[in-house]
Design goal:
This protein is mostly helical and 162 residues long. It has a domain at 54-155. It has three helices and no strands. Residues 39-49 have a biased composition (Basic and acidic residues). Pfam families: BORCS6 (PF10157).
Length: 162
Amino acid sequence: MEEDGGERAQRRHLTSSETLISEPHLDPPSTCPETIPHPGEEDRTESKPELNQTEIFRTLEVVERDSLAIADSFTTLFASLRLALSEVTSNSVDHMHCFSEAAGRLQESVLDCATKGNRYINSSLRLNEEMKGIDSLALQLKLLRRNVDALDSGVNKLLRLP
């Protein structure tokens, strides 16, 4: 063991550029850290696993509390998202109903305007057709007026004779 201790001391003093070359041992030492029990520590070694278990249980409790807190946060988040989505969907549905109603009323107004416009166009076309025959009617009226004027002047001459 003294040789092993000497080699360890020698290894501690090596720099990064130096390499220790030694003959391989048939029974190499363990790579696990060695624990040398101190007097009176034997009682502690038996209670040490209990401390580890206690620490493990405490750690598990902390992890469990954190997990519950995270789960609560996720539950709150999803509830909030669900509410927001519901409100958006509700608003979207309300807007769609409003848009549908407005589009329906606009369609009725457009149909009413189109009907009145067609009536106006048809009336204008009829008036235009009637106006084409008015020239001949105007000529006939002029002739009729001349004849009435001539008749009137003839009657006036007859009545003034005495």
